[in-house]
Amino acid sequence: MTESTVAAAGAWEVPDRSVSPARRNLGRAVIAVPTIALVAVAGIQIAHTARASAPGFANWRPVAYVYVLWAICLGIGLVMTKGERGKRALFVLPALLFTLAMVVFPTAFGFVLAFSSWNLSSSVGRQFNGFANLRQLFHDTFFWQAMLNMVYYVLSVLVQYAIAFGLALLLNQEIHLRRFFRITFLLPFMLSPVAVSWMIGKSIMDARFGPAAQLLRTLGAQAPAFFDRAWPARLSIMAMDSWYSIPFMMILLLAGLQALPDEVLEASKVDGSSGWQTFWRIVFPIMLPVSITTIILRTIFELKLADVVINVTGGAPGGATDTVSSYIFRVYNDRSNVGYGTALAEFYLIVIVLFLALMLWLSSLWLRKVR
Amino acid sequence: MRMTSRQKGAIVGSVNAAAEAGDARAKARRRARRTAGRVLIYAALVIWAIIALFPIYWTVSTSFKTAIDVTQDHIVPWLQFHPDWRGWRSIGLSPDTIGQPNSSRSEFVKRFTNSLTSAVGASLIAVILGSLAAYGLARFEYKWAIWRNRDISFFFLSQLILPPVALAMPLLVLYKELALLDTHVGLILVYVLMVLPIVIWIMRDQFISIPAELEQAAMVDGASIWGAFFRIVLPLSAPGFVSSFILAVILCWNEYFFASLLTSSAAKTLPVLVASQTGSQGINWWAMAAVSTAAIAPLVVIGILLERYIVRGLATGAVK
User: Does CATH place domain B103-315 in 3.30.450.40?
Assistant: First the structure.
């Protein structure tokens, strides 16, 4: 993304039609009254939740409705007080208020949950337990195994990247049936990971009669099993994950290749003998920024990997294939300690935010040095 | 993107080298190497095409197999096994059962419509909210306290990082309080949140590519900001809308994590149905295959018909 284009488009003259003081005051009232109403309704409900005897609603839904009303009044009020600038704010405001409501409340609430013990199936309810969850986390071998697995899974992104780059180079050649191959290579991306888990993990990789096991048997393997031991299982999960995520990287890299300056392509065509050298000396360095974008985006998605593991191995053998998400999913499904599962999730969130920030910072440093 | 002088030198050097290679023998050798290269390229293409297509073929063909054919690794229909409607009969979609009332078919149809409702509903809302925000960010300069356009854009994009696990449990508890558990509305809201960053990313790029002069001209003629948006910008940005809508539908249709935690019966979607078949009393291979085939079929069709838009949407921001 470029900031310059935004700035150029944004330097757009504001037609300054001034707002009369009466209109501005009315606008302020339109914002203030619903704000008070929102605070009041939320307050009533909080009191009701804390002490059942206090008056209140059956559930929190009225508060959500008042929030929507408040958002609408805020929009009207902004147009009344700010005029043209208010109208412009209306473009971004709905998405912003929606995201804030859907992310801020759950995340804030999540951090409260993380410090409590809560068995959803018992009647005791939520109880504050301080740092007990955090202490348990540091002694949870399953969790740390899952964290270690995430390192392996993230490293597998580099292999995926190499294959995706190869495929993108292939598709970028002068070939017949290019459209057919492009659609074919893209198809795995469209498929649901759950269906993939079944198709590949449960059926093709079945140890007794899956075609993949048969293939290994004809190649001389004694008793091929994909999910019995730690590393074969992990590699099998990686293979499935790669199968449906390579197309995504391939498309980004292909777009990068197609945007290469013409003279580069000419040169690599004329200089057919040293195609390999052309690639390393010219194509690869020019593709570096696209490559880094691709790898970072893919890493972000890789860190959420869960569906395949949940549906194929459920973490077996002994947590060796667990991703953090799939492990927490099991803790959640247990429902006996919601607080602990949330503590794990919030801890993981902090770790990946730090990790991605570091990755972005290092890549920008490195790109600057290379240039 | 700028080339360094060394890279330019390399290009010029290689062009000269090729011009000098007038020797006939060298030419013949080059042609042979070229042919070998072509063969390698096509071999690699075909191998990867098989890797990409075989699992899909395997699923579709297994839905027409009987128990013996599944376990004996029969792959080619008619030669190795005789196609049978068994898998499709078990979900009530074979020719002989389709006319009669069938409980597993009605279950399947219910999950299918649930998936359709959540995916299309969420994508529509996300495209509306997201394109408005993207337009604002592409055209105007905002200054809200310390927040400028860059910060707002980054805020939206950073939602991509948020892992579903961090939201799932708090949302489960909040949804319980809001009476939104196991409802379409609840699921749609989560999905909108999930795809909104992608929609904003694609649409912002689309709007930046449309010259602002077009709207300025319309506004000189008396149109308002919103009038210019609806009459000039919307028609011109149709490709971006198609791309972002399709990508959103794909992501929502395939979503499993939230669906399995936040729905139980009324709003349960297709991926949850597929996953739940795996667990109990062994696997009904043919039935599984039939359900999976039906679950991936719509997306395969979309992929073949609208590949251009999907590629366009995915590639947004890759090249700058």
Answer: no
